[in-house]
Design brief:
With 256 residues, this protein is mainly alpha-helical. Helices cover 66% and strands 3% of the residues. The protein has a two-stranded antiparallel ribbon with strand order 1-2. Strand 1 and strand 2 (88-91) form a beta hairpin. The radius of gyration is 27 Å and the shape is elongated. The protein starts with a helix and ends with a helix. Residues 40-47 have low confidence and may be disordered.
């Protein structure tokens, strides 16, 4: 049954294979929670067909097993969490509930534990992006990236694909916000990387090597060494000291 599901998911376009599993009744044996996503419609509490949405989202993702399993399960917790509040349907905490269902079902299908862990985490985090358009602090952006970890690319693709609206403006707005989030993650990561950089030689080593006492020249030397480290991060201590000697000699020639 696991192979039937994986085969359907990894088709270039999984739409028809998934629909065939549903029509044939195999889906009820493989993932019995899946048919339940065809939530009952009524004229008062209207909401989209979650099953159709799920198949559409899955079909939009690239054929990566973890990503497509996450797309298939990302709303699996909605039937268990559906409620009506103020005349509107809501699915409070459906990602957390869905993550538990996902873990249990994938283990029952005997998927490898690393696949189970990654897909479960993607389902749990699948709603985390909501609210970004309202503005996130740098701390919130860092937390999003940190929580996603090695799944960040998968999570962002799932967020992009979890948009099946026919409203072109809304769809483009979501893609813009994901672009913005990814750029902020990149900028913050670069800033943190630069902040963590250190010259290969510290101030004490510079003073000892150049025969200097504490003073502004040491700071200038450290700035030179930091730029050198950025340009040539693989230089060893001996070559770094040679370059420092060259820089120091040139500086003395200019100042003399």
């Amino acid at each position: 049954m696991r192979d039937l599901l994986s085969g359907a998911l990894l088709a270039d376009d999984p739409t028809e294979p998934l629909l065939e599993l549903l029509r044939s009744g195999w889906a009820e044996r493989i993932v019995p929670e899946l048919p339940a996503l065809e939530l009952e419609q009524d004229p008062i509490h209207r909401h989209k067909d979650v099953l159709a949405h799920t198949v559409a989202v899955t079909a939009k993702t690239r054929p990566d097993l973890r990503l497509r399993l996450a797309a298939l399960f990302h709303d699996i917790g909605k039937p268990a969490t559906r409620s009506y509040e103020g005349g509107k349907v809501s699915f409070h905490q459906h990602e957390a509930v869905g993550a538990k269902i996902t873990r249990r079902r994938l283990r029952a299908l005997e998927y490898p534990e690393d696949v189970v862990a990654d897909v479960t985490e993607l389902v749990r985090l699948s709603g985390r992006f909501k609210g970004f358009s309202g503005g996130w602090s740098d701390a919130a952006v860092r937390r999003y990236a940190r929580d996603a970890g090695h799944l960040l690319g998968h999570l962002n693709e799932l967020v992009r694909c979890d948009c099946t609206t026919r409203d072109r403006a809304r769809a483009e707005e979501l893609q813009h916000h994901v672009d913005e989030l990814e750029e902020r993650i990149r900028q913050l990561a670069e800033a943190e990387r630069r902040a963590a950089e250190r010259p290969l030689l510290d101030g004490h080593a510079v003073m000892q090597h150049l025969g200097l006492g504490a003073g502004p020249e040491v700071g200038e030397a450290l700035r030179f060494l930091l730029q050198l480290r950025r340009r040539a991060p693989d230089l060893g201590v001996e070559e770094t000291e040679r370059r420092l000697d060259e820089w120091w000699a040139e500086r003395r020639d200019v100042t003399d």
